[in-house]
Amino acid sequence: MSKEQLSSLLKQHRDQIDAIDEQILKLANARANHARHIGELKDDGVIYRPEREAQVLRRLMELNDGPLPAESVTNIFRSIMSNCRALEKELTVAFLGPLGTYSEEAALKQFGEGKHAVVCGSIDEVFRTVESGQADYGVVPVENSNEGAVGLTLDLLLSSPLKICGEVTIPIHHCLLSKQTDLQQISHVFSHSQSLAQCHEWLNKMLPRAEREPVTSNARAAQMIHDLIAADGTFAAAIASKRAAELFNLNILAENIEDDPKNTTRFLVLSAHDVAPSGEDKTSFVTATKNQPGAILGLLEPLAKHNVSMTKLESRPAKGGMWEYVFYVDIEGHVQDANVASALEEVTAKASYLKLLGSYPQAVV
Question: What is the architecture, at CATH level 2, of domain 175-261?
Answer without folding.
Answer: 3-Layer(aba) Sandwich (3.40)
